[in-house]
Each structure stands twice: as C-alpha cells, then as structure tokens.
Amino acid sequence: MGPYPEGDPAAMRAAAADLRRAASILGGAPNPTVDGWQSPEAGRVRAVLTAATGTAGRVAANLEAAAARLDRAAVRLDTEQRVWLTAQNHGGRP
C-alpha cells in the first residue's frame, strides 16, 4: 500500500467556489456604454470596451472550467483518502 494521498478536498472545493464567484462577476459584467459621445476617440474607446467585455467572458469561462476540474479532483482525492483509510483499518486491504 502506498503513502496516504495528501491534500485537502474541502479546501479544493472552497477554492473552486471562489473561482466560480470570480467567474460570475466577470461573466456578468455589462458592456459599458458611452452613449452620446461622438468622435474618433469615442469609437476607439467603444472598441476597447467591447474587447474587454469579451475578454472578461472568456476568462469567466476558463475560471468555470478550472473550478469544475478542481471539483472533480477533490472528489477523486476524497475517494482515494477514504480507500486508503479503509485499507489501513483492514490490514492493508480496501
């Protein structure tokens, strides 16, 4: 039997929840408007704002994906730790 699988599944799930909160904030960011402002600079500012909002949406999706992966890893680690502990209590056999 190998060593105890180190790690803290609860902390991993908490980190995933933090990532989801950040994703929610970024993903919910409205596209800022600068209505009524007409000039070449206004067009450039609008383009930057639109790009930034798009980037925020992509980052939010990446954070959601990372959170899901972290949750899956926490489940695996929790299972591995339980199997290891059960084996310890049964003479090395799960």
List keywords for this structure.
single chain; 94 residues; 73% helix; 0% strand
Range of strand content: under 5%
Order of helices and strands: HH
Unreliable stretches covering 5 or more consecutive residues? none
The strand count comes to 0
Rg result:
23 Å
Q: What is this structure, in a nutshell?
A:
With 94 residues, the protein is mainly alpha-helical. The chain has helices at 9-27, 40-89.
Description:
By secondary structure, this protein is an all-alpha fold. 73% of the residues lie in helices and 0% in strands. The protein is built from 2 helices and no strands. The chain has helices at 9-27, 40-89. The radius of gyration is 23 Å and the shape is rod-shaped. The termini are close together. The model has no long low-confidence stretch (mean pLDDT 94).
Topology:
Layout: H1 9-27, H2 40-89
